[in-house]
From TrEMBL:
InterPro entries: P-loop_NTPase
Protein name: Uncharacterized protein
SUPFAM superfamilies with a match to the protein in the record: P-loop containing nucleoside triphosphate hydrolases
């Protein structure tokens, strides 16, 4: 494993217990904030406290769960986590991704309000070669995957089916 000297440049500063990160967003329309340079946005550390149900974590009901039940202890623990809410990413729209094969993707299947198109879920889910290369960003409503085609889309599919049958008859010698 390479040492930190091999990975980071000599001017790298390591900060522990940061309160915020300063992020440059080049296309930001924000004016300068206080004494910060233009396009610099402070992102504060977020602290979250949540309970973890050990019943779900230890589904096999192994030794840990046995001990908890014997001692009549709750099977939940409280977790406090501090983190900078940053995800390095490159994003594109579903429309831009059409026709591309991408190595790995993260998809948000929570659709914006309004009419949901059939392609809204299908296109991004079909951009990778393997299902293991898809990560779904957050829980979503199953209805995002159950969109019915519009009347216009059904008419187009029917038109293409008729065209296919006509082509198949006309060029039967080429169809095996």
């Amino acid at each position: 494993m390479p040492s930190t000297e091999d990975v980071f440049t000599s001017d790298t500063v390591f900060v522990r217990n940061a309160q915020y990160a300063l992020v440059e967003v080049r296309k930001s329309k924000l004016k300068n904030l206080d004494s910060l340079d233009s396009h610099i946005i402070p992102i504060p550390v977020i602290e979250k406290t949540f309970d973890v149900n050990l019943d779900k974590l230890y589904a096999d009901k192994g030794a840990v769960m046995k001990i908890l039940k014997e001692k009549k202890l709750k099977a939940t623990i409280c977790v406090k986590r501090k983190a900078l809410p940053l995800i390095p990413a490159y994003s594109i729209t579903t429309h831009k991704s059409q026709g591309q094969t991408l190595p790995k993707i993260v998809i948000d299947l929570n659709m914006p309000p309004g009419i949901v198109e059939v392609a809204s879920a299908y296109v991004p889910l079909s951009r990778v070669e393997q299902l293991t290369n898809v990560a779904i960003l957050q829980d979503f409503n199953i209805s995002a995957l159950q969109v019915k085609p519009s009347k216009g889309q059904i008419a187009e599919l029917n038109r293409l089916a008729v065209l296919f049958q006509q082509t198949k008859q006309r060029y039967a010698q080429y169809f095996v």
